[in-house]
Backbone:
């Protein structure tokens, strides 16, 4: 029996998200989420997509080892267990690969050590990713396991885009440079946008706008990333749900010296209590739009700041690319927030950008164009599929190694 299934694991600090796919036709067989790991109120929600059955369990799940064993038990109930001979590999999302990892990598002890060495530049993400890797390897030590890195797609950025203007010796000593994130999404969406245009990725320049609670933009030239909005960490760039995005670094000095805030307090402020949430108390775009419709000026200003930053990056990436064939909106806000797409491109007719109001207002699950037929630059809405991208890269690598 051919091994064609890939289990994709996305391990957070207190969560484990997973999907099982059959790579013969990219069909999803099962998906689920374990959240609040380590608490008495842990919850596992599992869906068998072949039968449509959803099961939910609540109660204490002590750690990621217990969480993955619980996931394995649920998959086993559906005849899709981790011991199945049809399981070809496990693909792990790893947020930070630095400059060492530029492509999907089969995991061994050396790879684990290097991911661990990157923990100082990704303290919130890499430790959780490592926990998932170690747990999965302990359960199936015989199975190929592959790390797919959020940063890998952005390693093609030229040094002029990746470097900060600080002493390079200090920067290199402390690994300070722009790495970028959401790479699996930007890779998938830029490629799907080219397909939508009936072209090869090497033939088009695309600006990808990944707009979710975390948000990032990328400039993709002929299939290769040449710039992206996030930097050494996911804090830089666009206004996000709870992150500030771009900020004068002196604000941090001011908050410490004049405001008397500690580094931890400033970190919490900029990462968890800023962005849309910091501006108006909501980080859900649907709620913000509802408040705007009711005349809420605070929500309206938050929306305007969000859009202003987005437009600045669109304009900047036009300058970086020189020629743009398409702009693609993706992720939760990008795929669903009609007013965001409309406002982000309003007044950019001089760049050849426009949306057809009727096409923009249509709801659909598939990739589609929302620009007028005669538009110089295509505008697309492309649902992202990071799990499929991870599974595809994992399966391709395992097949190549075999």
Residues:
């Amino acid at each position: 029996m051919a091994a064609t299934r890939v289990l994709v694991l996305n391990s957070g600090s207190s969560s484990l998200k997973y999907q099982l796919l059959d790579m013969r036709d990219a069909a999803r067989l099962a998906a689920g989420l374990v959240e609040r790991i380590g608490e008495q109120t842990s919850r596992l929600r599992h869906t068998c997509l072949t039968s449509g059955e959803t099961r939910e369990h609540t109660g204490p799940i002590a750690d990621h080892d217990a969480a993955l064993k619980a996931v394995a038990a649920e998959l086993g109930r559906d005849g899709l267990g981790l011991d199945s001979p049809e399981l070809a590999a496990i693909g792990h999302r790893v947020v930070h690969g630095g400059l060492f990892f530029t492509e999907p990598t089969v995991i061994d002890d050396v790879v684990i050590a290097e991911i661990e060495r990157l923990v100082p530049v990704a303290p919130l993400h890499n430790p959780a990713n490592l926990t998932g890797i170690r747990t999965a390897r302990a359960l199936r030590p015989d199975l190929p396991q592959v790390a797919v890195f959020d940063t890998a797609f952005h390693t093609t950025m030229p040094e002029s885009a990746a470097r900060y203007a600080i002493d390079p010796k200090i920067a290199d000593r402390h690994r300070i440079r722009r790495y970028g994130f959401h790479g699996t999404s930007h890779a998938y969406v830029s490629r799907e946008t080219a397909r939508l245009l009936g072209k090869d990725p090497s033939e088009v320049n695309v600006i990808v706008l990944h707009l979710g609670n975390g948000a990032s933009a990328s400039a993709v030239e002929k299939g290769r990333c040449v710039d992206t909005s996030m930097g050494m960490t996911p804090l830089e760039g666009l206004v996000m749900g709870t992150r500030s995005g771009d900020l004068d670094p002196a604000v941090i000095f001011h908050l410490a010296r004049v405001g008397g805030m500690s580094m931890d307090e400033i970190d919490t402020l900029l990462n968890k209590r800023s962005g849309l949430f910091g501006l108006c108390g909501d980080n859900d775009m649907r709620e913000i739009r509802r408040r705007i419709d009711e005349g809420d000026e605070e929500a309206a200003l938050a929306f305007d700041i969000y859009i202003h930053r987005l437009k600045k990056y669109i304009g900047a990436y036009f300058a970086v690319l020189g020629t743009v064939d398409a702009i693609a909106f993706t992720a939760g806000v990008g795929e669903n927030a009609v007013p965001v797409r409309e406002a982000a491109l309003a007044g950019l007719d001089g760049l050849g950008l426009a949306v057809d109001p009727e096409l923009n207002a249509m709801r659909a699950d598939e990739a589609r164009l929302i620009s007028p037929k005669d538009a110089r630059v295509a505008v697309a809405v492309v649902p992202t599929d990071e799990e499929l991208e991870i599974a595809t890269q994992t399966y391709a690598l395992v097949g190549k190694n075999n």
Q: What stands out?
A: The longest helix spans residues 297-321. The chain has a mean pLDDT of 94. Residues 249 and 398 are 43 Å apart (CA to CA).
